[in-house]
Amino acid sequence: MIDTITRGVRYSSLVMIFTSLVGAVALIYIGTEKMFRAIWDYFTGTMPPNAIKAAQLSDVFIVRALESLDAFLIAFALTSFGYGIFFLVFRSHRPKTARVPGVSPRQHRGAQSVAHAGPSGHLDNLFRTRRLA
C-alpha cells in the first residue's frame, strides 16, 4: 500500500520538474529578448514610450539590463529547483563507492570511515596497490 503511494508521489513530481524547466526556458527567452531590445534601443537612441521624461538613455538601458538579468536569475533558480527535485526523487540515495581489488567490502567500509575521520593525505596510503615489474 505504502509502496504504491510513494510511487505515485514519485511520478507526480515529474510535473514539478517539467513545469520548472519549461518556465526556465521561457524566462531565458524573455531575458534574451529584453536584453536585445535594450541594446537596440540604446544604440538607435529610441526611448520606450513608458520611460520617464527626465530619464536619460543610459538610465533606461541600465534598468532594462537589470530586468533581463532578473529574468535570467529566476530561470537559473527554476533550473536548479527542477534538477534538485529530479536528483532527490529519481536518483539512488546511496553513493557509489570505488572497488579496490583485493579488499573485501567490509575492509573497504572501515577504510572509508578512517579516511573520512583523518586528514586526506593518508587516503593514498590506505588504497595503494603494488605494481608488478
Structure overview:
This protein has 133 residues and is mainly α. The protein folds into two domains: 2-90; 95-133, no CATH class. It contains four helices and no strands. α1 (2-44) runs antiparallel to α2. The longest helix is centred in the first third of the chain and has 43 residues, at 2-44. The protein starts with a helix and ends in a 7-residue tail after the last helix. The model has no long low-confidence stretch (mean pLDDT 78).
Fraction of residues in β-strands: under 5%
- Enumerate how many helices there are, as a single number: 4
**Which structural category fits the helices and strands?**
mainly alpha
Give the SSE string: HHHH
Low-confidence stretches: none
**Assembly form of the protein:** single chain
Average pLDDT, all residues: 78
Secondary-structure map:
Layout: H1 2-44, H2 57-90, H3 105-117, H4 123-126
Helix pairs in contact: 1-2
Concise synopsis of the structure shown:
By secondary structure, the chain is mostly helical. The chain folds into 2 domains: 2-90; 95-133, no CATH class. 71% of the residues lie in helices and 0% in strands.
List descriptors.
133 residues; mainly alpha; 4 helices; 71% helix; 0% strand
